[in-house]
Amino acid sequence: MARFIAQIIVLGGQVVARAFTQALRQEFQRGQAAQSAAKTAKEGVKRATTNSMMGISLEEAKQILNIERIDKEAITKNYDHLFKVNEKAGGGSFYLQSKVVRAKERLDAELEATEKEKQQNTEDSADK
């Protein structure tokens, strides 16, 4: 009889230990998901702030300069071309020319932010 009671206690302990371990794993996963969501929200707020300050969104700037990904050479090449084509002296539109300038400024700001982020990540990795 004592043997059966001991087995019941051991099995009960194992069940409780498994449940506790599973609960810890779930809590850890929830913590990671919350941390990821907070980081995404922070980036969204940062991007929205930059959009409102610059007066143009990143996507609109990419469309204006006709680029797929942010590449300094492509930005400069397309900017130079579009700026020259829209010169008022050549019959172009000052409005379009100013949109091209604003698009370049927005993309340059994004490049700068990306470089700062990479630099911070490098410094954080070096500190660890």
Detailed description of the structure:
One of its GO terms (biological process) is protein import into mitochondrial matrix. InterPro entries: J_dom_sf, Tim16. This protein is mainly α and 128 residues long. The chain has two domains: 1-54; 56-127, Helix Hairpins. The chain is built from four helices and no strands. α2 (58-65) crosses α4 and α3 packs antiparallel against α4 (94-127). The radius of gyration is 28 Å and the shape is rod-shaped. It starts with a helix and ends with a helix. The mean pLDDT is 85.
| N-to-C order of helices and strands | HHHH
Gyration radius, to the nearest Å?
28 Å
- Can you identify the CATH superfamily of the largest domain? DnaJ domain
Top-tier CATH class of the largest domain: Mainly Alpha
Largest sheet: none
Mean pLDDT: 85
Estimate nothing, just give the exact number of structural domains. Answer: 2
CATH topology of the largest domain: Helix Hairpins
- Helix content range: over 70%
End-to-end separation = 57 Å
Name of the CATH architecture of the largest domain: Orthogonal Bundle
Poorly predicted segments:
none
Total count of strands: 0
Tally the helices: 4
How do you describe this structure in short?
By secondary structure, the chain is an all-alpha fold. 85% of the residues lie in helices and 0% in strands. The chain folds into 2 domains: 1-54; 56-127, Helix Hairpins (Orthogonal Bundle), CATH 1.10.287.110.
